[in-house]
Amino acid sequence: MRKKELKLVVTFHTTADAMAMEKACKEHQAPGRIIPVPRAISAGCGLAWCAALEDREQIVSMMRMTGIEEEEMHECMV
Amino acid sequence: MNLSDSKKKLALAGVICGLVAACLAFLGNPANMAFCIACFIRDTAGALGMHQAEVVQYARPEIIGLVLGAFIISVGTKEYRSTGGSSPMIRFVLGMIIVIGSLVFLGCPLRMIIRMSAGDLNAWVALIGFILGVATGVFALKKGFSLGRAHAVNKMGGTMLPAIMVGILILALCSSVLKASETGPGSMHAPLIASLVGGLVFGAVAQKSRMCFAGSIRDVILMKNFDLFSVIAGLFVVMLVFNLATGRFVVGFDTPGIIAHSNHLWNILGMYTVGFAATLAGGCPLRQLILAGQGSSDSAVTVMGMFVGAALCHTLGLAASGTAMNAETQEIVAGAVPPHGKVACIVCIIVCFVIAFTNKRDEAK
Fold first, then answer.
1. Which of A34, A45, A47 has the CB atom closest to B210's CB atom?
2. What is the dihedral of CA B117, B118, B121, B127, to 10 degrees?
3. Does a structural domain hold residue B252?
4. Residue B323 falls within a domain, yes or no?
5. Domain ranges in chain A?
6. pLDDT, mean over chain B
7. Distance separating alpha carbons of residues B62 and B35, to the nearest angstrom
8. Domains held by chain B: number
9. Which residues of chain A neighbour B148 with C-beta distances below 8 Å?
10. What is the pLDDT of residues B162-191, one digit of tens each?
């Protein structure tokens, strides 16, 4: 079983924003992957973006550039 | 106990919900309808006089319990959020579509799983449609489909559906104003208190585990993530064991007495409609009730759409009939989808496509 690690988890207002994030990250070769929103941080059943903590700056600048707005940014075990 | 931090615990959540469904089936709920959201909303709509089909009228305490169970546990664990404003009328229409599709197939995704666990091959056929429907919804999501974001609203807004459910419960307990079937599926039910407690437990566990039938398939297709799927698998296994142990497991298509039909095309299209609409609405019928319980006015509006859709199914003759045994001739009479139901199902699919490809995230337009 994969060991859980502390990661950066970005949540979004809509599923469409999460899908746009995935597309933008692919285009800009930003690191990370799409995951279901961890239950510990939300009662929703949407999608979130998960990346390593050290990639935070790159992710944030890419989101500003592409106009993707986050709901919240968390650091949690994934 | 945290029910959601591993696949095993999520499967345990499914097992608990399966046990609730098995107990209610044992205590009197209709065969293989142990716990069906669409059927129970249809019965409750009938009890409120929204349709006049006399065999399907009963205020199902399970529906009341689901909403209140989710409400109580979300307040208790500080997950209650009063939100709304994400395309409410589109969600209302999607709620109607979800129930129309369900009643063409004769069951919601939860009942599809319960029927599958009892050997009903029609439900296995319908699963194909459900998966294709969710996949179509996922395709729309990838193309930028969005109903817009929900916003925080007045705290009381999210309590309206739970309050309505309390009102229905009071009417059921203290008056004879609600209609109740004397024959047919509506007359078959577990004792009120058992149904209510079962609904409360199911609702609380479903809220904590985020159980969703459309979501589970969506996550597998989108991310190859099996977390939500493990909840459904747990429920399926318990119901399979229950059906095997009580002699209710019968493999076949034309099985009288299980409220199902063998119109394969319409089983597939019915559940295709449900899978597609549920993915667009952000959750299956069960999930809509749970989200409404934890404060989402958008899901409460979807639930209202489900009530109206259920009423329309019986006032306009859209709902399918189940295969049954003629008591006099002892011949099996095949169940069928009426012509109006077929037309409605096709119209619902077209409406889903229009909704899916005309509502886009701002930047995707």
1. A45
2. -30
3. yes
4. yes
5. 6-77
6. 93
7. 8
8. 1
9. 14
10. 999 999 999 999 999 999 999 989 999 999
